[in-house]
Design goal:
Structural class: alpha+beta
Helix content: 55-70%
Radius of gyration: 55 Å
Distance between the termini: 54 Å
Number of strands: 15
Strand content: 5-15%
Number of helices: 20
Shape: rod-shaped
Length: 675
């Protein structure tokens, strides 16, 4: 679907189809209307020559010729000495010249504006009147008769009978009262349709042929073409503003011109084009000549195409502006209002702006109420204004919600997506830009921190593994040397120191590897139901001797009932072991160590409290970092990884690990969900 919207070929085809479909619908609608107005002519329609309209027109011309001849006869009798005169009759026929000749004094060659027919009249007195031009082939009555009867379509009445090759105008088939008037006039009539310059016949023949071939299918064609036109127009509206390789709605330089200018130019062009179209249609209606009529039809089609192009351009830019949400912004009125408001609001704070905007809302509402109070129907105008303000406020709140959500994501450490700055207005747009900049910097900092942490973890792991191999060899060789019978006490002392230090280094290496695994989550857990009381008793038993050496008294506050949690027994033992090791190293000698287990609702909590031997001049956050020890003088053995490992292992098992420092009081709380 997206590819179809962006296809220039499909768009061009649709733009071409629109005027074609509109023209087909108009022509078929006119065909239907013309058929309904002249329905009898299209029953068994064969040609225009056989229609009632043609017969009516033909007979009307004959009667008009007889009336003119009667008037001319009276004029000649009153002016017997006149040889040449011009006389006008009516609005559509004119006797332009009368010529009489000595050779044929009874033949009057009169040129009427009965342009489409050749006429020969013989009055009861024997006078001969014709509009056939006098030539050597038409200088006698007989020659004129032969000339007229030689035409393709003719009609004559010679006081005996009607003779014609037009079937509808035979005496038997005549539906016209006019033939009785011709008989009563006493005139003999010879007429024929001019074929050389018959503009009226040409025009109506073309119309009747078109209607005759289309009126039966016209309703179906109108329905089908209307549906196609609706589909094509819908596609055009949807596809406007979409371009291959361009995200969203694109606009061009035309869309940046103020809409008032576009509208003014369009109205001016359409006015000129409509005037030209009316002139062409008038020329077609006048049927002056075939050439002028054909030229007028061509001109009307060309002007129609130009009108369509004008309407298409104004329509496309209008729809594109609306879809791109710049219709109102690209108007002169908006620019004036924005200029005034920016100049007025620039130095005001948010509260002052809100007061002014609310005051403007109230003032506008009052003005609208005063205007429409006598016309209740126009109350819709007020409701529309209120709806517009409500929509603006709703949109403003939605923008604030987006900003609030972005801030929440940043606070929680989530990257989230960047805010679309173009969807925000005025001050909020600037806020969105600044938030995007902060979010981008924060994301970059997080990525850099994660990268640094990953590199540090990889370095620790790799170094630990590299140290582990030679260290194992050192330890093995030390053990072998200790098995030898060495008498030198000095050497034995050195071996003991070497053994102690290598074991310490081994423990440090193991702690490094475990800390790396714990922090990266690269540990496979076996979660099971674990008795917390049993765990504490087991660990306390393991450290009983060490605590006694330093004079540490363990005071356990354990509940009577068993408390169970879901955890990995091996890693949970390591957590508690690290805490007991920490106490055995850093607790004040000859002091008490408090170990409490309590269940609060669905939470099981283990608390360990002791008094520190050294002053705790370090923060909780620093204490939880790797390689940091409470013994700043580093006189005790330790890697500074115990607390960090314990915290990571606890959190991997979905528990909580917290440290609290109060003076020299050191307290650890470990929480799990009780089961």
């Amino acid at each position: 679907m997206e590819k179809l919207k962006n296809s220039n070929i499909v768009k061009a085809l649709c733009y071409f189809l629109v005027p074609m479909l509109v023209l087909i619908i108009i022509l078929n609608a006119l065909s239907t209307l013309y058929y309904l107005d002249n329905e009898s002519d299209f029953t068994n329609y064969k040609s225009y020559i056989e229609t009632k309209r043609f017969s009516d027109s033909y007979m009307g011309k004959i009667l008009r010729a007889i009336h003119i001849a009667e008037n001319e006869k009276e004029y000649i009798q009153a002016n017997s000495k006149l040889k040449t005169e011009s006389v006008k009759y009516g609005t559509d026929e004119t006797l332009s010249k009368i010529e009489t000749y000595g050779e044929n004094p009874n033949i009057q060659y009169n040129f009427y504006t009965i342009r489409n027919y050749d006429v020969l009249l013989i009055s009861p007195d024997g006078d001969i009147i014709t509009n056939v031009e006098r030539t050597t082939s038409t200088d006698t009555r007989e020659k004129i008769e032969q000339y007229i009867l030689s035409k393709k379509y003719y009609w004559k009445y010679d006081k005996k009978q009607v003779k014609t090759n037009i079937s509808n105008m035979s005496y038997e088939n005549s539906y016209y009262n006019g033939i009785e008037e011709i008989i009563n006039s006493g005139y003999e009539v010879y007429t024929a349709l001019k074929e050389d310059d018959n503009n009226e016949f040409y025009a109506f023949n073309m119309i009747y042929d078109f209607v005759g071939s289309t009126y039966k299918d016209a309703p179906s064609v109108i329905i089908v073409c209307s549906i196609l036109l609706l589909i094509v127009c819908t596609y055009i509206i949807i596809s406007i503003g979409h371009k291959e390789g361009h995200e969203g709605i694109y606009t061009n330089s035309l869309d940046k011109i103020p809409y008032e200018i576009i509208a003014f130019v369009a109205i001016a062009l359409l006015t000129i084009e409509a005037g030209g179209l009316v002139m062409c249609l008038q020329a077609i209606n006048d049927i002056i000549s075939k050439m002028i009529m054909n030229a007028s039809i061509t001109g009307a089609i060309c002007i129609g195409v130009v009108i369509y192009i004008t309407l298409a351009i104004i329509g496309v830019t209008t729809i594109r502006r609306i879809k791109a949400h710049v219709f109102w912004k690209n108007t002169i009125i908006y620019k004036i209002i924005e200029f005034v408001l920016n100049g007025l609001f620039t130095d005001l704070n948010t509260t002052a702006k809100l007061v002014l905007q609310y005051g403007g809302f109230i003032l506008t509402s009052v003005i609208i109420i005063l205007i429409v109070r006598d016309a209740p129907i126009f109350i819709l105008l007020l409701l529309a204004f209120w709806y517009y303000v409500f929509k603006k406020l709703l949109n403003y709140n939605l923008q604030i919600d987006k900003i609030r959500e972005q801030i929440k994501n940043m606070y929680n450490g989530n990257k989230g997506e960047k805010l679309d700055e173009e969807t925000f207005t005025k001050e909020l747009k600037q806020v969105a830009i600044e938030l995007n900049d902060i979010s981008g910097g924060l994301t970059k900092a997080i990525d850099e921190a994660m990268k640094s942490e990953r590199l540090k973890t990889e370095l620790i792991t790799n170094v630990s593994h590299d140290i582990k191999t030679p260290l194992t060899s050192i330890i093995n060789y030390v053990d072998l040397m200790k098995q030898e019978e060495i008498e030198d006490e000095k050497v034995k002392e050195y071996l003991q120191v070497l053994d102690n230090k290598s074991q310490r280094l081994k423990k440090l290496t193991e702690d490094l590897v475990e800390a790396s695994k714990a922090s990266s989550g690269n540990i496979k857990l076996t979660m099971e139901k674990l008795n917390v009381k049993e765990l504490i008793k087991q660990v306390s038993g393991e450290f009983e001797d060490k605590f006694e050496k330093r004079g540490l008294e363990i005071i356990e506050n354990l509940p009577e009932e068993d408390i169970f949690i879901e955890a990995d027994s091996r890693y949970m033992f390591r957590v508690m072991e690290n805490m007991y090791v920490n106490i055995s190293k850093y607790a004040l000698e000859n002091s008490r160590v408090y170990i409490d287990i309590e269940k609060n609702g669905d939470t099981a909590k283990i608390s360990l409290k002791n008094i520190s031997q050294d002053q705790l001049n370090i923060s909780v956050d620093e204490l939880m970092q790797r390689f940091v020890r409470g013994d700043s003088s580093r006189t005790t053995e330790g890697s500074g990884l115990g607390i960090s490992i314990a915290k990571s292992l606890t959190e991997l098992q979905k528990g909580k690990f917290n440290i609290y420092l109060d003076g020299d009081l050191f307290k650890v709380e470990i929480e799990f969900k009780a089961i």
